[in-house]
Amino acid sequence: MALAVGLISVILGGRAVTRSSAGVGRSSRPGRALVALVVGLLGVILSGVRLATATGAIGTGSGRLGAIVALVVGLTGTVLGGLALARSRRTT
Question: Is 2 part of a structural domain of the chain?
C-alpha cells in the first residue's frame, strides 16, 4: 500500500513539474504540487511505520525491503512535489 501511494506521488509530482515548467500561459497553480507533496509525505509515513513494525531480516517475507523501496519512492514523490511547488511560486 505504501508503495502504491509513493508511486501515485511520483506520477503526480512528475506531472506537476512538467506543468510548472511548461512556460507562460500554462497553469502555474500550486494545486498539483501540493497534492504530490502531501501524498509523498503520506507514503513516507506509511512506509516508515511498516519498516518500524517489520520483524525479521530482508528476505524473510516480513516486508522490510518493500518498505525501504516504498520509502525511497515516497521521498522521490515528495521531492518532485516540492520542486514543482517552488517552480509554481517563482515569478517571471
Answer: yes
